[in-house]
Design a protein that fits this description.
single chain; alpha+beta; five-stranded mixed beta sheet; 12 helices; 5 strands
């Protein structure tokens, strides 16, 4: 009974480790805030889970068990590329663990460990191809991986080894298979529930911080970002764009066409600014009506006057079907943080400069120089 209890406790721990690691990997993958340390974090996180699984299983049941469970779940639930990476690092951690316990390694053991890792990846690929049902494919893959590993038991130390009478071994094997299947079902279900919650939260975030008509950030998000952005970056600037004579367009062509024009203008603005701004986040907001706000880093732009003149020229070449192909223009105001103490003041300055551009004849951008 002790062996059955120990195996049950082992699988509870493995389930907790696998669930938390999978959720963390997914969070990293979908996060918009990424840097050069992301891959290192994934390696440390995955490696820690794999090594902990080996250590816990050795202490509970006397051998290494289910060390490829994370790789299998990752393959089917997150990323085939990450799963392949896991099948490469898992043998490394297995060899490290074996060395710490037995204080010796041979070339044969090293080859067998890596051969089994590659076999597991091929097994995942074949199982995914032959079995369309994801849950069934995961269960079959794990069972085949554990069963096949018994063939290596005599060649690699600390692998799963059965002991006792044939009847006891059969009962023990059936019990382990049953508990293992239950763990896979539970982990997969918990992961899918977290994914569902993340999706719902993302939709709530989009609804609360995005403009329904254009899909850009809304005024509420702008207010939040004005206080969130670092006030120490003197290169930060704020530009306000206002479509010229938009009220006349609404009156002549109707609000439906006016809304379509706003949508198309926001798409044009997003694509142009993203193209010119490279990989930097696009902080573009609908300020209200036909006004749009862009928070940018001037160090990535170069000559601001030439940049906004180029934007104006490009806009005038675009066909606008909703207003019979007429050209449109915008008036703009640009404030810079180097002239102020905070971004709220920059926004007010940009707004004032926008009205100067309108007063000077529209279709131009006034940039703060004082």
């Amino acid at each position: 009974m002790v062996e059955f209890y120990n195996y049950f406790m082992l699988m509870l721990i493995v389930a907790s480790l696998a669930t938390s690691t999978l959720i963390s990997l997914r969070f990293i993958n979908i996060s918009e805030f990424k840097n050069g340390y992301v891959d290192l974090i994934k390696v440390l996180m995955s490696g820690s889970m794999v090594y902990t699984t080996m250590s816990v299983s050795y202490n509970f049941v006397g051998n290494i068990a289910h060390e490829y469970l994370l790789a299998i779940l990752t393959y089917f639930l997150i990323s085939k590329r990450q799963a392949f990476f896991l099948t490469l690092i898992t043998p490394l951690f297995a060899l490290l663990f074996i060395f710490f316990i037995d204080d010796s390694l041979s070339l044969r053991i090293i080859i067998m460990c890596f051969a089994f890792g590659l076999f597991v990846f091929l097994l995942m690929s074949v199982t995914a191809y032959l079995i369309p049902n994801q849950l069934l494919a995961i269960i079959v893959c794990e069972i085949l991986a554990v069963t096949t590993k018994l063939w290596f038991a005599s060649d690699i130390p600390l692998m799963a080894v059965q002991s006792g009478s044939e009847l006891f071994e059969l009962i023990q094997s059936l019990y382990r298979v049953g508990v293992g299947i239950a763990v896979l079902i539970i982990v997969r279900q918990l992961y899918l529930q977290v994914v569902k919650l993340q999706y719902q939260n993302k939709k709530l975030y989009q609804n609360s911080y995005h403009d329904n008509l254009t899909g850009l950030f809304n005024y509420r998000k702008l207010e939040k970002d004005l206080s969130w952005y670092s006030q120490d970056n003197d290169n930060l600037g704020i530009a306000i764009f206002d479509l010229d004579y938009f009220k006349q367009i609404n009156d002549e062509f109707g609000h439906l066409n006016g809304n379509q024009l706003l949508q198309h203008f926001s798409e044009f603005l997003s694509e142009y600014l993203q193209y010119k701004n490279g990989n930097e986040p696009l902080n573009l907001y609908r300020y209200g009506g036909e006004e749009f706000v862009w928070i940018f880093d001037a160090s990535h732009i170069g000559d601001l006057a030439l940049f906004f003149e180029s934007l104006q020229r490009q806009l005038k070449t675009m066909p606008w079907d909703e207003i019979d192909g007429r050209t449109i223009s915008f008036s703009g105001g640009v404030g810079l943080l180097r002239h102020h103490h905070d971004l709220s003041s920059v926004l007010r300055s940009a707004d004032e400069l926008l009205y100067q551009a309108k007063a000077n004849g529209r279709a131009q951008t006034t940039i703060e120089t004082k």
